[in-house]
């Protein structure tokens, strides 16, 4: 039997893998569990021995196959044969876990697997929902500004986001939400001080050329426009008029009429 877990969201995929293996480990009929990482070329042949040897009184076997989609063409064909031989074998459970798309040789698994689950990167709203859910489990609550900042900073990186939530758990006080200022103190989110220079330039109403220069430095450092925008919008140094303007930009971005980069450029002019 085959279970297929695939997609770029490594954290959620790894949690599902852990859940499934734990479930099988609790069953008395499970005789052995092995892991095979095919980044090591020798692991493929060790796996073939594992799948092929079925003793008469042996219970179920469970094998976790990782990085299988990166095998060379010859080995992929051999893997295909080994998987097909065990599709209907109830005594061998093969769990395939990979961040990549299925290669052509293994497309049949989509139809033959007893369970298939794809873990795509989360969009902004789903990231926030995921963050709230995981934070609640840890007794942590974020302000809206802190939530916006973290979802932008850890875009497509749920593993990094969870690591940060775990770290912030020690800061949380009962009935107190974690603010952006708490995030500033707790972590080194920026490669340079350019973000602070940009916020100062905007909040002090320096000339458009000075603001654009600071923003350009951020872009050159490959800082995410969404993260810059949310950090700026959460700044306590902005005037009421500028805060209102940032809120208007946010509506325009979320409605798809402009992007974060355009909003930042407009805020500088």
The averaged pLDDT comes out at 85
H/E series: EHEHEHEHEHHHHHHHHH
Largest β-sheet summary: 5 strands, parallel
Using DSSP, what is the number of strands?
5
The secondary structure category is alpha/beta
Low-confidence stretches: none
Q: What separation lies between the terminal Cα atoms?
A: 61 Å
Tell me roughly what share of residues is in helical segments.
Answer: 40-55%
Number of structural units classed as domains: 2
Strand content: 5-15%
Q: Could you write a compact summary of the structure shown?
A:
This protein has helices at residues 10-25, 41-52, 73-86, 109-112, 124-137, 144-153, 158-168, 180-186, 194-203, 208-220, 225-233, 240-254, 260-268, and strands spanning 2-6, 30-37, 60-66, 92-98, 115-118.
Could you please describe the fold and organization of this structure?
The protein has 13 helices and 5 strands. With 269 residues, it is of the alpha/beta class. The protein has 2 domains: 2-118, Rossmann fold (3-Layer(aba) Sandwich), CATH 3.40.50; 124-268, no CATH class. A 5-stranded parallel β-sheet has the order 2-3-4-1-5, sandwiched between helices. Helix 5 (124-137) packs parallel to helix 7 (158-168). The longest helix is centred in the first third of the chain and has 16 residues, at 10-25. The chain starts with a strand and ends with a helix.
């Amino acid at each position: 039997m085959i279970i297929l877990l695939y997609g770029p969201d490594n954290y959620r995929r790894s949690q599902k893998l852990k859940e499934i293996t734990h479930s099988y480990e609790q069953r008395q009929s499970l005789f052995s569990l092995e892991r095979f990482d095919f980044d090591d070329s020798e692991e493929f042949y060790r796996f073939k021995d594992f799948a092929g040897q079925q003793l008469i009184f042996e219970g179920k076997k469970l094998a976790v196959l990782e990085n299988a989609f990166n095998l060379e063409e010859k080995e992929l064909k051999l893997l295909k044969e080994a998987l097909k031989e065990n599709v209907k074998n109830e005594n061998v459970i093969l769990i395939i876990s990979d961040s990549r798309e299925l290669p052509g040789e293994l497309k049949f698994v989509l139809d033959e697997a007893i369970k298939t689950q794809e873990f795509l990167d989360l969009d902004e709203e789903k990231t926030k929902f995921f963050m709230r859910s995981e934070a609640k489990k840890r007794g942590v609550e974020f302000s809206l500004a802190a939530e916006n900042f973290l979802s932008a900073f850890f875009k497509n990186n749920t593993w990094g986001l969870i690591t940060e939530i775990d770290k912030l758990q020690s800061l949380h006080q009962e009935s107190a939400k974690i603010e952006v200022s708490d995030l500033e103190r707790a972590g080194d989110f920026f490669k340079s001080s350019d973000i602070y220079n940009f916020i100062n330039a905007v909040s002090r109403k320096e000339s458009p050329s000075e603001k654009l220069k600071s923003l350009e430095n951020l872009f050159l450092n490959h800082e995410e426009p969404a993260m810059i925008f949310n950090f700026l919008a959460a700044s306590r140094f902005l005037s009421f008029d500028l805060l209102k303007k940032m809120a208007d930009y946010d509506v325009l971005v979320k409605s798809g009429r402009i992007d974060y980069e355009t909003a930042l450029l407009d805020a500088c002019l």
